[in-house]
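Researcher: Batch entry, complex prediction.
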Amino acid sequence: MKNVASAFAVGLIFGIGLAVSQMMNPAKVIGFLDFAGRWDPTLALVMIGALIASAPGFALARRRTGSLLGEPMRVPTRRDISVRLVGGAAIFGIGWGIAGFCPGPALSAIATGQSRVLLFVAAMIVGALLYRILPAERLIKT
Amino acid sequence: MENFTPLSGFVGGLLIGAAASLFVLLNGRVAGISGILGGALVPRGGDFAWRVAFLVGLIGGPFAVAAVSGQMPEVVMQTSDLGIVVAGVLVGFGTQLGGGCTSGHGVCGIARLSPRSLVATATFFAVAAATVYLTRHLGG
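Model: Structure tokens for the complex:
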């Protein structure tokens, strides 16, 4: 159960970070992506802060075979650049550009109770389930 | 650049990064939200509770901030309902197909210099910026 408690605590810190940085606000994210408009560089500062604080954790984790709570290390090891990877990222990018929401901010924004946030999250879950249903593995071989 | 909020952005980013560090050290996993969500939708034995706990915490974050600041953080969506539905489906499908989103590829992947995540992140940032240009400036 310790891994469940730590997952909750980590999720909470992550959600606080999304709220403090205002990345849970789609208007703020669109402000960064809109280079031809009134550009708001805030998202770049968020990324820099996140990388400064996450790089040490991954550097320490690399030297370990198990986690501090005794879980196996499940950090991805693949290095191949596949059509699926780039295609999936591009499809995600279109959706991200339309609404300004990516998965973490959309889920944390459920806290506002706004019906349009719930609409986005419901559609996002449908999209994720569609991936499980459609034979994506066969459509895209590599 | 009148909307630029560098300090709160940087501090929030540090919190997000600290969460990613804690998660890989404690749970041995990458804090990728689309992966955590995707796994929760098709649960396998013993793999469900921690995912739900993480997502509940994620939703709790803004409540914690609201408890301290006295108001819920702002969420402004400037997209039509149809646009929201289309975008949601694309984000859900694309992140599962591409194996990650802004957190898994963008933060965790770049932090560990994964070539896959560098390519994925460059792709979704470029495509999202192009989409914003098309929808807000050309399609208007």
